[in-house]
Design a protein that fits this description.
about 350 residues; alpha/beta; Rossmann fold; 2 domains; 3-stranded parallel sheet; 13 helices; 12 strands
Length: about 350
């Protein structure tokens, strides 16, 4: 009897331990947010900006964050996702990379894990958190319209080179469509349309080909972001040209080019706003609630944030927000422009 009693006690203790372990695992999973970033060099944004901000935002909201970077490798993206899902995720926040996010979203949904598409759209996600990307594009298009008007050039006859972002990035089409709608309404026509890319060096090569195709007659360039714009501006400068060029991201190089008058403006998208919105959505999901949205993107509820167009006089506002440093911007030839526009 005594022996049986001891065995029974051990068995009961084991069951209790398993129950506690299961409870702990369940609790951990319930507050575990799995995040996959796409690369470490896209406008130098993800690692220095979103990663630490998401880490802090999720921690402050009571979540354990597993944030990893696919390093521009679709295979690694899938491997990271499998490992995260095996450990358990209450929610997945994915920045798509060349369509890899779609397959991962399907796996997550099949496992009952809600998916938030962050910054870039992903088919089948539960929510899409980004800026209003059509509006971003419209702002870029307006940069060209305003730049040509300031240069006293007729937009209807101007030789404009059109370029766009990587076609595998769902945002790229929204940027381009938004810009084209504004340019079409103004009567503009593309003299040449480049292939889309986010690779600055490649954009430079593509622009050199476009420059040759139009025999050096360029009145403006619709560039999808500051990174591409920088390479394009280098070639324009080499050929003695300063023309309206669009961009986005409010990068240090982009802000410098805006101050120098080499880039008409840049679209500013404070990543902190995107992080806050994403954390708010995750918190709502964890609480069994729906997050209210007013827009849709291919059937996915879309949390669309408002971007800001930044010309020379607005650069100081980006610095004031803490998303750029005057010490980085105001170097060399840019120093005088910083003084003139109150950047300090």
């Amino acid at each position: 009897m005594k022996k049986t009693s001891i065995v029974s006690m051990i068995a009961v203790a084991a069951v209790a331990a398993m129950a506690l372990t299961g409870c702990a695992a369940s609790t951990t999973t319930a507050k575990r947010a799995c995040v996959i970033l796409p690369d470490a060099d896209s406008g130098t944004r993800w690692e220095p900006g979103d990663h630490p901000a998401l880490q802090k935002g999720l921690k402050d909201a009571g979540f354990t964050a597993d944030i990893q970077n696919a390093q521009s490798d679709a295979g690694k993206y899938s491997t990271i996702a499998d490992a995260q899902l095996a450990k358990g995720c209450a929610v997945m926040l994915l920045v798509d990379f060349q369509g890899a996010g779609v397959a991962v979203a399907k796996k997550a949904k099949a496992a009952g894990v809600p998916v938030i598409a962050y910054d870039r759209p992903i088919a089948g996600a539960d929510y899409y958190v980004s800026f209003d990307n059509t509006k971003v594009g419209a702002m870029e298009g307006q940069m060209i319209v305003d730049g040509l008007a300031a240069a006293n050039k007729d937009i209807k006859t101007a030789s404009i080179i059109y370029s766009s972002g990587d076609p595998t990035d769902g945002n790229a089409a929204m940027f381009f469509d938004g810009a084209k709608a504004v340019l079409d309404a103004a009567g503009a026509k593309a003299a040449f349309t480049m292939d889309g890319t986010w690779d600055g060096a490649k954009a430079g090569t593509l622009f050199e080909q476009a420059f040759t195709a139009v025999k050096g007659k360029v009145d403006a360039v619709l560039a999808p972001n500051d990174n591409n714009a920088a390479s394009i501006i280098t070639i324009l400068t080499k050929n003695g040209l300063t023309v309206p060029v669009s961009g986005q991201d409010a990068s240090t190089a982009g802000l410098q080019n805006v101050l120098l008058g080499l880039q008409t403006a840049t679209v500013y998208k404070p990543f902190q706003l995107e992080v806050k919105a994403a954390v708010d959505v995750i918190t709502a999901i964890a609480g069994g609630k729906k997050y209210a949205t007013t827009m849709m993107n291919n059937g996915v509820p879309y949390v669309a944030l408002t971007p800001v167009s930044v010309g020379p006089d607005q650069v100081k506002d980006v610095v004031a927000d803490g998303n750029a440093k005057a010490t980085d911007i105001c170097t060399g030839a840019v120093a005088a422009a910083c003084t003139a526009h109150g950047v300090k």
